[in-house]
């Protein structure tokens, strides 16, 4: 066991549109964050799971969900205003753990990641120090010109959609976060790229969708059924 997982869960789920964090919404009867945490915990290489949460949600994780948090050995951390702040809290918690070679950052909002995809992205990161799951873009992509008055087609043959886990050698991620000062980034691969480290793409599965809008939960329910077949 030599992988530490950071499972950022400190968002609010604004686009999901409920009055509580979307991660408490139920997927086949269980909260989204719990389904995600169980999948990571089940992987033989995962040694630790650090889950950054918001101050607002802490009473629920320490009350209603305390037994699940304990049973999975989840370490709660203090998330921040931006996802990057939440991940940084996780990195700080894992820093200095000599038993950990890789650190895997996985959105708690991606509950359906497959074990075979975890194997693949961990193995790639073993060799390269930086690897992420991603899927090829299947849509025809247009760039808007003149505020939509016209458009042009972007060649999609080299375009991929980034997923998580995003997996790095611990020292690589620590260096990326040590250098990071404010300039926003939407994922950790971007921060690692900024220190000049090449990030490998590992073809993943569309099963590993992120729950962003309510429709995504309907799709996830359907995918979950096919995974059990
Ligand atoms: N996240 C986090 N800390 C933040 C923002 C997001 O830990 N300050 C986490 C979310 O809880 C989620 C993951 O990062 O598991 C991916 O973020 P996203 O899907 O954007 O979730 P939210 O930020 O909660 O949703 P929204 O952007 O619609 O508000
Ligand atoms: Mg967000």
What would your notes on this structure say?
The protein is of the alpha/beta class. The protein has one domain (3-228): Spore Coat Polysaccharide Biosynthesis Protein SpsA, Chain A, CATH 3.90.550.10. Helices cover 34% and strands 24% of the residues. Helix 4 (83-94) packs across helix 6 (170-179). The two termini are 29 Å apart. The protein binds cytidine-5'-triphosphate and magnesium ion.
What is the strand and helix layout of this fold?
Elements: E1 3-6, E2 26-27, E3 30-31, H1 32-41, E4 46-53, H2 58-62, H3 66-71, E5 74-78, H4 83-94, E6 102-105, H5 115-128, E7 130-136, E8 141-145, E9 150-154, E10 160-169, H6 170-179, H7 188-194, E11 200-203, H8 214-228
Parallel strand pairs: 1-4, 1-6, 4-5, 7-11
Antiparallel strand pairs: 2-3, 6-10, 7-10, 8-9
Helix pairs in contact: 4-6, 6-7
The structure holds cytidine-5'-triphosphate and magnesium ion.
Cytidine-5'-triphosphate binds at residues 8-16, 23, 52, 79-83, 86, 107-109, 210, 212.
How many strand segments? 11
Specify the CATH class: Alpha Beta
The major sheet is characterized as: 7 strands, mixed
Helix/strand structural class: alpha/beta
Separate helix tally: 8
Summarize the structure.
This protein is an alpha/beta fold and 229 residues long. It has helices at residues 32-41, 58-62, 66-71, 83-94, 115-128, 170-179, 188-194, 214-228; strands at residues 3-6, 26-27, 30-31, 46-53, 74-78, 102-105, 130-136, 141-145, 150-154, 160-169, 200-203. It contains eight helices and eleven strands.
């Amino acid at each position: 066991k030599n992988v530490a997982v950071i499972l950022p869960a400190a968002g609010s789920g604004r686009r999901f549109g409920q009055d509580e964090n979307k991660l408490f919404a139920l997927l086949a009867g269980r909260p989204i964050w719990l389904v995600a945490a169980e999948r990571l915990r089940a992987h033989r290489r995962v040694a630790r799971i650090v889950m950054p949460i918001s101050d607002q949600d802490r009473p629920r994780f320490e009350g209603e969900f305390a037994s699940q948090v304990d049973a999975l050995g989840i370490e709660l951390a203090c998330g921040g205003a931006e996802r990057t702040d939440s991940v940084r809290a996780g990195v700080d918690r894992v820093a200095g753990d000599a038993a950990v070679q890789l650190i895997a950052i996985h959105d708690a909002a991606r509950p359906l990641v497959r074990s075979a995809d975890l194997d693949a992205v961990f193995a790639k990161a073993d060799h390269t120090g930086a690897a992420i799951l991603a899927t090829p873009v299947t849509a025809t992509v247009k760039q808007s010109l003149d505020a939509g008055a016209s458009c042009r087609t972007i060649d999609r043959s080299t375009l991929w959609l980034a997923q998580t886990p995003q997996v790095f050698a611990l020292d690589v991620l620590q260096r990326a976060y040590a250098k990071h000062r404010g300039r926003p980034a939407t994922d950790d691969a971007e921060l690692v790229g900024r220190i000049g480290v090449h990030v490998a793409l590992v073809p993943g599965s569309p099963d590993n969708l992120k729950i962003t809008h309510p429709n995504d939960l309907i799709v996830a329910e359907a995918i979950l059924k096919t995974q059990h077949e």
